[in-house]
Amino acid sequence: MAVRKVAAMGNPILYRIAEHVADPTDPKIARLVGDMKDTLIDIGGSGIAAPQIYESLRVVVYRFSARLDDNVEELDDPWVTLVNPVLTPVGDEMVSGWERCLSIPGLHGKVPRHKSLTMTYQDLSRTEITVEASGALATLLQHECDHLDGILYPMQMPDISKLEFNTEPGHLAQDIADGVKVWPVLRDLVDAWPARELWFKG
Fold first, then answer.
1. DSSP secondary structure code for residue 166 in this structure
2. In the annotation, is 74 catalytic?
3. Per CATH, the architecture of 12-103+111-158 is what?
4. Measuring CA to CA, which residue among 80, 64, 63 is closest to residue 72?
């Protein structure tokens, strides 16, 4: 297994529709998943899609933890591998939340997402699995699966003024001050922001 370079916004591979995986049991897919995990561990990320490491295949790896949601208990094995995932929104309700991306370092933005969804995918043994997700997990799944269709989160943003640097999280800080729930990893940006008090003056 190996730590792989992450493609940055602007690289053509991030805008392609990734290819269906014909055989999830192929050892090449297991090696790819191992590299994706190693890359996430090295970076400290929560989720990654294969196109982000220059493999245009419909594979996603994530680890859902308390870094994303205070209500989640840490698991002995938090890793989940999705092969050929298909997302289906449940209802029309949307929620807007703040997101970051390994392919867009140094920035975060506010993105509308479906509140609830159903997902069908295959694991590495080719077993087909269906799950229901809502809240933070639904957001994570939509973000990562967008990568499989050549979509980066700024392309989903209706208000580009809510795209800001991690070092100047003004709108994010305002949302937190207004009581909006955000991922713990994003709250850390505001807690570390030296200019946070200036945002709220006058």
1. T
2. no
3. Alpha-Beta Complex (3.90)
4. 64
